[in-house]
Task: structure prediction
Amino acid sequence: SSQSAFLSPKADRLGSTDSPNNIATGNGDSPEDPMQPTDIELSKGLFHLAVVPNSGSDNVSIINTFTNTEIKRISVSNEPRHVAMSRDGRYAYIGGENKAYKSLKIDKIDLISLININSIAIPKLGNQGIISFFEFEISPNGKWLIAMEGHNGTIYIMNTTNLNVLRKISVCPTCNGVNPTQEIVRVVFSPDSRYLYAADPSEAKVIIIELSSGNIVRELPGPQDFYAKNNCNSCYQDLKISQDGDLLYLVPSIYRVTSNKNLWRAAIREYNLVNYSFRDLIIRDDLTTPDNYYN
Result:
């Protein structure tokens, strides 16, 4: 499950050392399927609110970050797991999936009226196996909502105003929702919201997508990660971009040391997005097994 927080200066009390309250968001719907928070976003405007999707339920908790109290619970799609916040803090977008992993739903919550104002469904298409959101992000300019369905390697580009799906991009031909080692795992925006970068460990590459057209404009070589063929939950852990948009970092990766096939290397790959060169920033070069690094 994803756990992240984006803190605004106006909402700095949630979880602070000065306010150590534990905030209860309720019990699960049943002992077999308990409700549990899976993500958190804090309002970036003047609303002083945190939005927490409660997996194992069909609701999200709205928390006042000044008083550390839950002020409302809003019904959304079953199994809400991800949340993204509009740049002005007015709206929260919730990504959820049904328990059978056969459909995905997105809800839009107005944080002034505290009601769910829009909902769309993304159904399973054909024999896709399981489907599940891996990434759920809003572009820096606030125009695009990106929902990445990782198991089948599909990226949905939506308009944040009405949740219309503008583009559906298949970026991983070998991802079929059946083999868990074939997945798209991370995305990041360019600072100007022109491009989206997607990490594909299944095919050892980083894909560059132009958001306005939905076209794949370039592919960058990624290291052949050991876990890409074994357990992709542990490969290509993160994708970050510099503030000026010139450098992209893929972290971390585990692959064989070329000069010694019995040793493994842990490294961060740095891409220069001006000339599309890359280099590996080595963390460890002496691992006798990839598990030594993760353990």
Observations:
- Residues 1-22, 26-33, 226-234 have pLDDT under 50 and may be disordered.
- Helices lie at 291-294.
- Residues 291-294 form the longest helix (4 residues).
